[in-house]
């Protein structure tokens, strides 16, 4: 199925955290252990695992936010971003200024965000509120703005941690639809989710991550069945 | 550093300035009012209570306070630069040195505005510009680099050893008292003077006074030493940042 070169490949990747064990004493604890897999261009990979299995840590490694303490990760000339909402929002500046700041933190050029601003305003449905300070927004409005900005991201690989839809019922539908469209397009996507339906709908392949190391990688149904039996 | 990051950090610094000023009624005016209030407090203590002032004490004190404030606020802000952005750096990759640099820009903009006002104040008080004023930009650049290296160094080590933050506040206070902000270092006893004169902030504050108030050229040898020291420490700091760039997000949990 994938005859192209992998876009990211991981070999025996592990991440350890420092845990305090008294005055000036620490011990290591491995949040992620021995993960090996390749991510191919255009595929959608799902990641499942129990709480604390290291799924979010794995996404941080893929995004290049943290470097592994063990093993090797190889990126083949690609931009990888974690889909994050409301990154770097400052409460006292306007929605428009926050959109630019947040967009730049997500790796979009300032001029591109300014160009996309009408789309952001339209998608968020904020109207003239865009020029009001964000601390006057409701939680829902903030979520709308956050999503609309993140929706403008266009990295080669997009990493999604549980967030598909946000806000009220109407916006949740709209944002989830936008996400699904993004995922089912030719984009390479890695998605962490506990929702089996989402995974079944969107993913080509699933990776089951466990504290002791990767368990299974394979077709959706096979992995989900053994995952559910492991309870 | 590529252009994208410069643009980002500039936008972040100016947005934070805007956010800061919209948090109070006086807004931007606070950048001027705050040092003025600060100055009034010291004026009361040293001129009125201790009677230590004498003629020319106000410009002398103002100069010291303005110059110190730039250093002090950026360094103590730098100490929190990474820890206060822990949520941000866990979500996106950013070269971490951008965080203290953003605080440095923020503090520098404020300093330049207040410095312009101080020069205006001197001119209105009958100080005549001297040829030596031409060396002012050089002193500003050297202080900028000195602040950059100290704030950057502190920013890079505080996440690794948070206890340093607690020591730092006291070190800054000590440094404030021995940098000659409100007294003239050349008047202290000889045996102490030699040590006090080694303090880079004392050298810098003295240079501003010599240039602006006395109209003389500063001690270029001492300034050169400060510059050399700053570049050395900047180099070390750069490597600490590079080494821990993708480790900081893990430590800050």
From TrEMBL, chain A:
SMART domains with a match to the protein in the record: AAA
Family annotation (Gene3D superfamilies): P-loop containing nucleotide triphosphate hydrolases
Coiled-coil parts of chain: none
An annotated Gene Ontology molecular function: ATP hydrolysis activity
PROSITE patterns documented for this protein: ABC_TRANSPORTER_2
One family name in Pfam for this protein: ABC_tran
Any one annotated GO CC term: membrane
EC numbers: 3.6.3.40
Enzyme class: hydrolase
Domain ABC transporter: from-to ranges: 8-228
Keywords: ATP-binding, Hydrolase, Nucleotide-binding, Transport
Family indicated by similarity: Belongs to the ABC transporter superfamily.
PANTHER family from the UniProt entry: TEICHOIC ACIDS EXPORT ATP-BINDING PROTEIN TAGH (PTHR46743:SF2)
Full protein name: Teichoic-acid-transporting ATPase
TrEMBL record, chain B:
InterPro entries (alphabetical): ABC2_TM (IPR013525), ABC2_TM_bact-type (IPR047817), ABC_2_transport (IPR000412)
GO molecular function: ABC-type transporter activity
Membrane topology (UniProt): Multi-pass membrane protein
Alphabetized Pfam families for the sequence: ABC2_membrane
GO BP term, pick one: lipopolysaccharide transport
Cell compartments where the protein resides: Cell inner membrane
Ranges annotated as spanning the membrane: 28-50, 57-77, 97-124, 131-155, 167-187, 220-241
Any one cellular-component term (Gene Ontology): ATP-binding cassette (ABC) transporter complex
ABC transmembrane type-2 domain residues: 26-244
Keyword terms of this UniProt record: Cell inner membrane, Cell membrane, Membrane, Transmembrane, Transmembrane helix, Transport
Primary site of residence: membrane
Record family assignment: Belongs to the ABC-2 integral membrane protein family.
Protein known as: Transport permease protein
């Amino acid at each position: 199925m994938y005859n192209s070169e992998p876009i990211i490949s991981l070999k025996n990747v592990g991440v350890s955290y420092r845990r305090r064990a008294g005055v000036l004493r620490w011990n290591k604890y491995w949040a992620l252990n021995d993960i090996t897999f390749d991510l191919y261009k255009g595929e959608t990979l799902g990641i499942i695992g129990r709480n604390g299995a290291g799924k979010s840590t794995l996404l941080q490694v893929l995004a290049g936010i943290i470097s592994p303490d063990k093993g090797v990760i190889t990126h083949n000339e690609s931009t990888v971003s974690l889909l994050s909402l409301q990154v770097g929002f400052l409460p006292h500046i306007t929605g428009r200024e926050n959109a630019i700041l947040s967009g730049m933190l997500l790796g979009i050029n300032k001029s591109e965000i300014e160009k996309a601003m009408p789309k952001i305003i339209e998608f968020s449905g904020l109207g003239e509120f865009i020029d009001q300070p964000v601390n006057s927004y409701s939680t829902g409005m903030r979520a709308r703005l956050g999503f609309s900005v993140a929706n403008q991201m266009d990295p080669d690989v997009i990493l999604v941690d549980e967030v598909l839809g946000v806000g009220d019922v109407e916006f949740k539908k709209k944002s989830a639809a936008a996400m699904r469209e993004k995922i089912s397009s030719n984009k390479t996507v890695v998605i962490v989710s506990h929702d089996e339906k989402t995974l079944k709908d969107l993913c080509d392949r699933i990776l089951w991550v466990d504290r002791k190391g990767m368990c299974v990688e394979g077709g959706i149904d096979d992995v989900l069945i053994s995952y559910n039996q492991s309870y | 550093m590529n252009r994208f990051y410069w643009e980002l950090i500039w936008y972040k610094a100016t947005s934070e300035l805007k956010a800061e000023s919209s948090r109070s009624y006086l807004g931007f005016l606070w950048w001027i009012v705050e040092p003025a209030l600060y100055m009034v407090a010291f004026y009361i203590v040293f001129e009125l209570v201790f009677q230590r002032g004498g003629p020319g004490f106000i410009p002398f004190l103002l100069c010291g306070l303005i110059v110190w404030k730039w250093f002090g606020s950026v360094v103590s802000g730098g100490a929190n630069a990474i820890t206060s952005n822990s949520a941000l750096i866990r979500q996106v990759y950013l070269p971490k040195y951008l965080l203290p640099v953003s605080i440095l820009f923020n503090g520098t903009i404020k300093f330049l505005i207040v410095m312009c006002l101080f020069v205006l104040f001197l001119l209105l008080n009958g100080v005549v510009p001297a040829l030596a004023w031409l060396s002012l930009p050089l002193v500003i650049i050297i202080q900028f680099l000195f602040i950059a290296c100290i704030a950057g160094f502190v920013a890079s080590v505080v996440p690794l050893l948070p206890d340093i933050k607690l020591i730092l506040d006291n070190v800054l206070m000590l440094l404030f008292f021995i940098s000659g902000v409100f007294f003239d270092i050349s008047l202290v006893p000889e045996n102490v003077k030699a040590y006090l004169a080694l303090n880079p902030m004392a050298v810098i504050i003295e240079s501003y006074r010599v240039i602006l108030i006395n109209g003389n050229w500063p001690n270029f040898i001492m300034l050169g030493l400060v510059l050399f020291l700053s570049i050395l420490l900047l180099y070390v700091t750069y490597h600490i940042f590079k080494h821990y760039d993708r480790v900081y997000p893990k430590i800050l949990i």
